[in-house]
Amino acid sequence: MSKSGLAADFLWGGAVAAHQLEGGWQAGGKGLSIADVMTAGANKVPRKITDGVQAGENYPNHSAIDFYHHYKEDIKLFAEMGFNCFRTSIAWTRIFPNGDEAEPNEAGLKFYDDVFAECHKYGIEPVITLSHFEMPYHLVSEYGGWRDRRVIDFFVHFAEVCFKRYRNSVKYWMTFNEINNQMDYMNDFLVATDSGLVFRNNEDAATREALMYQASHYEVVASALAVKMGHQINPDFKIGSMINFTPLYPASAKPADILVAEKMMQRRYWWSDVQAWGRYPVGMEAYFKQHGLRPDITAEDRIVLQEGTVDYIGFSYYNSMTIAADGASFKIVANPTLETSEWDWPIDPLGLRYALNWLQDRYHLPMMIVENGLGARDKVEADGSIHDPYRIDYLRAHIEQMIKAVNEDGVELWGYTPWGCIDLVSAGTGQMSKRYGFIYVDKDDEGNGILARSRKDSFYWYQKVIQTNGADL
Ligand code: BGP
C-alpha cells in the first residue's frame, strides 16, 4: 500500500469515447453511427437526431478533435501526466460499418491496433468500452435499434471480433456505456444513445416504456453472451458493467419521499443488478408482470444471464439528484445544500463516497470509477496559460472521498479515470465549450479552431496526484 492507502498498482488515467473525440467519421471505411446524426445543441437546447445526415446541420462528432489523426500526440500527453490506463471505446462502425455484415472492416481493426500499441509503448493499459453511444445507424434505421432481437447477434459478433483481435492488447473491457440512462425513456437523446430507439411518430409514454424495457432486455442478454464468450477467448479478461450512478436522495424525512427514492433507485439500477447477479431483481419482475412489460424473455435468456455475470462494476459519477413523491409519481427537485455547475449539475463529492458504499454493499464486486468530472468554460490567457482551479477543486474533493471509501469503508476500487481527460464534444449538448479536460483543445462550438493542444493548470496538478498515488492532492 502507498501513503494514500491506494494499492500500488491503482489504475490512474482518463476517459473518453470514440464518437466524442476521434472525428474521422467516414475515414478508413467507417460507417454512419447514431452519434453522427446528432446535431449540436446547448444547455437546455436538445440535440436533434436527424434521419441520416442532413445538409445545413452542424454535426460536431464528425470531426470532434480529430484524435483519429492526433492519437500519437494525445497519448504522449497522457503518458506525460503519468497515466497507467486510458479508457476509450471502439467505434462499432469502424469495425462493422452497417452493423449486420459478416466480415469486419480491416482498416478499422488496424486503427485500434495502432492506438493500443501506442498506449502500451508508454505502459498505458487500455480500458475499452464496446458500445458507447455509437451503434451503427443502419441498425437504427433498418432494425429499429435494440427493439429487434437480431441485434443481439450483431453485437455479440462485434464483441467476438474485438476480443479475438485485441486478445493480447486489451485486458479491461465494458459492454454498454451507461446502459441505465434509458430509465428516462421520455428523453430522446438517452434512448437513442443507449438503445438506438428513435421515436418519430409521437409514440406515447406507454409505447416508449415498453420498447425501452424490451430493448434493455436484449442488451443485458447480449452483454451476458459477450462476457461468457470473452472469458472463453481470454480467461484473464476483466469485463465490467457500466452504469451512470446518480444517487437519488429523498427530499425530506417524509416516508413517501423515502419510499419513492428507494423505488426509483431500484428502477435506476436493475441493469447492473442483472449484470452482477445474473437475474432480474424481484421488484422489476413484479413491475413487468403488473404492466405487461418485457414480454419476450425465454428460459434460455435466463440461463445466459446466469452464465454471463460481470467481473467488476464500472460506473460514472458526476452528481446526486434529489427526489420527492409527487402524488402517485415523483419529481426531481433542487438540493438547496449543493452548488451547481453552469450546466446545472449539482456538485456533491460526498455522493461519490455514498456511491462506492452503495455499490459495494449491493454487488460485492471490485469497482472502477470510469467517469467523473466537471464540465466548465475555460479561458486561454494572453500568455497561453489556462487556469482551471474550479476543475482541480472538483476533482480533489472527489478523489478525497474516493480515498476515504477505500481506507475507511473498505471498498475494493481498481481505478479512477476522470471523464474527458482531453477536451472533447459533450455528449448531452454537442458543445466543445463544456470542457472537462486536463488538455485544452483549440476548437469552439461552431467548429472554429486549429485543434492545438495546450496543458491546463490541472494537467500539472493531476500529474502530481498520479506521481504520489493520490497522497498529494
Ligand atoms: C456520460 C457519458 C460520457 C460523457 C459524460 C459527460 O453520460 O458516458 O460520454 O459525455 O456523460 O456528459 P456531457 O458530455 O453531456 O457533459
TrEMBL record:
An example Gene Ontology CC term for this record: cytosol
Protein keywords: Glycosidase, Hydrolase
Gene3D superfamilies: Glycosidases
An MF annotation (GO) of this entry: beta-glucosidase activity
InterPro entries assigned: GH (IPR017853), GH_1_N_CS (IPR033132), Glyco_hydro_1 (IPR001360)
UniProt-listed GO biological process terms: carbohydrate catabolic process
Family: Belongs to the glycosyl hydrolase 1 family.
PANTHER family per UniProt: ARYL-PHOSPHO-BETA-D-GLUCOSIDASE BGLA, GLYCOSYL HYDROLASE
NCBIfam families recorded: PRK09589.1
The name this protein goes by in its record: 6-phospho-beta-glucosidase
